[in-house]
TrEMBL record:
Gene3D superfamilies, sorted: 3.40.50.10940
Domain L-arabinose isomerase N-terminal positions: 23-169
The entry's keywords: Arabinose catabolism, Carbohydrate metabolism, Isomerase, Manganese, Metal-binding
Protein name: L-arabinose isomerase
CDD domains in the cross-refs: L-fuc_L-ara-isomerases
L-arabinose isomerase central domain location: 177-311
Segments forming domain L-arabinose isomerase C-terminal: 319-461
Length: 465
């Protein structure tokens, strides 16, 4: 789901005042806008609007961007442009916005004449435009850079990926199969507040509908999935054909229902599946492979965590659902794992991902086939979405590294040891003070800055520990 580049619109702003003074300036600055787009071609697909020189131009450009299902709008001052002509556009903007404070030439030289001054005077247009955005209450990012540099391309890439995540997140539907775990307070929240403030919508799917879907599948669909698994994973010879078929039917049925309900994320709770009485085992391996395909996931009916795993996919790729299991003080790290669900796209590349037969007492069902792997060592980031009451939400984030640590042979679920950059003591003190939840998303790489841009655009408090 995140293989494509972000798709952004470039809105270049100027005014007619300069046309008589400098004939051809509009065409010249339109070419500058196209050059900026070309410079960004490897980090975003950029749609360039004709130069905006008045209110009608601005409104038409924004409508075109929104109708084209773009992820965000990059605003570039081609010259000075009075902000009152574009105030309504930003007051009603539905797409994430970034103001690129750039100019055609990076250096002021003695050779400059009035035309050069006019071509490069975007800075005070940016001030007028930014003032209009602030007055409109519009969250927006700002990038001041030399546009020809890698630094500019990198910063636009960060914003564009965050814009892609924000736009997708605002339209997200999270499917909950059954109900959420009783007593798990940090996953409780006001669903209407979430939809109002941030966008994600919760959809409840009855376990009975899931059961019927498993019965409607053809044997050829099941066989095709099992054949793919044979090619992709190391298969435990103790797994019976019946166990694998049950797992495959659950995975395919969950995926089918997610498509039918237009859900990009989901959660299952072991009690909701176990108490139903019709399912032989829990869908552990299903969660791992569906995450690898870009679906958000969380256990125990935790819609908040499922939604932020989905955002992690969109923002940085390969979101991995996990939780903190135990602290290891000698290595200054935290053992990360969960009951059996994890995105195998973050697995070590020097070890096979194993599909194993695995006893599990939780749910009081038969052994669930489970994908077992260790997490790839290297930089990583944790993020936890916290409901603070009403329409207030917070994202607690920690950067660090996954260690090339010891094997734990008795741990039959995905795992790794995460060493926070701030150290276990400081990290956990801050995490707990901030109300960080026990379910979270892990992304490989240091992406706290990406999460910060995401939070600023969507209206979430950002808290790094």
């Amino acid at each position: 789901m995140t293989d494509r580049l972000p798709r952004i619109g470039l809105m270049g702003i100027m005014q007619e005042l300069y046309d008589d003074m400098i004939p051809g300036i509009t065409d010249r600055q339109a070419g500058y806008a196209r050059d900026v787009a070309a410079h960004l071609a490897d980090v975003a697909e950029v749609v360039v609007a004709p130069p905006v020189r008045g209110r009608a131009n601005a409104e038409r450009a924004m409508r075109d961007f929104e109708n084209a299902d773009l992820d965000g709008v990059l605003v570039v001052m081609l010259t000075y442009g009075p902000s009152l002509r574009i105030t309504r556009v930003f007051n009603e903007a539905r797409l994430p916005v970034c103001l690129a404070n750039i100019q055609p030439d990076p250096t002021v030289t003695p050779e400059w004449d009035m035309a050069d001054m006019t071509y490069n005077q975007g800075i005070h247009g940016a001030q007028d435009t930014a003032n209009a955005m602030v007055r409109a209450g519009l969250p927006f990012d700002v990038i001041t850079e030399e546009w020809q540099t890698e630094a500019f391309r990198s910063r636009v890439s960060r914003w564009a990926r965050a814009a892609r995540a924000v736009t997708a997140w605002r339209q997200l539907r999270v499917g909950i199969f059954g109900y959420a775990m009783n007593g798990m307070g940090d996953a409780r929240f006001d669903e209407t507040a979430l939809a109002r403030a941030l966008g994600p919508e919760i959809v409840t799917i009855a376990p009975g509908r899931l059961y019927r879907a498993t019965q409607e599948l053809s044997s050829s669909e099941v066989a095709e999935l099992m054949a793919w698994e044979d090619q992709r994973f190391s298969i435990d010879p103790r797994l019976s054909k019946e166990e694998r078929e049950d797992h495959a039917r659950l995975q395919l049925s969950i995926e089918r229902l997610l498509r039918e309900h237009d859900c990009g994320a989901y959660s299952t709770h072991f009690d909701a599946i176990g108490e139903d009485g019709r399912f032989p085992r829990l869908p552990m391996a299903a969660a791992s492979t569906l995450m690898s395909q870009g679906y958000g996931f969380a256990g125990e009916g935790d819609a908040l965590a499922a939604s932020i795993v989905y955002a992690g996919h969109q923002l940085a790729g390969d979101g991995h659902f996990t939780e903190m299991y135990a602290m290891d003080f000698p290595s200054d790290s935290i053992l990360m794992s969960h009951m059996g669900e994890g995105n195998w796209k973050v697995a070590r590349d020097d070890e096979p991902v194993r599909l194993i037969k695995r006893p599990l007492g939780i749910g009081n069902l038969d052994d669930p086939p489970t994908l077992l792997f260790r997490i790839q060592p290297g930089p990583a980031t944790l993020a936890s979405l916290v409901a603070l009451g009403g329409e207030r939400f917070r994202l607690v984030v920690s950067e660090g590294e996954v260690l090339d640590s010891q094997e734990l042979p008795a741990l039959e679920m995905p795992y790794g040891q995460f060493r926070p950059a701030s150290g276990v003591r400081t990290c956990m003190d801050g995490w707990l003070r901030a109300g960080g939840t026990h379910h979270m998303v892990m992304n490989l790489g240091h992406v706290a800055a990406d999460w910060q841009v995401f939070c600023e655009m969507v209206g979430i408090e950002f808290y790094q520990v």
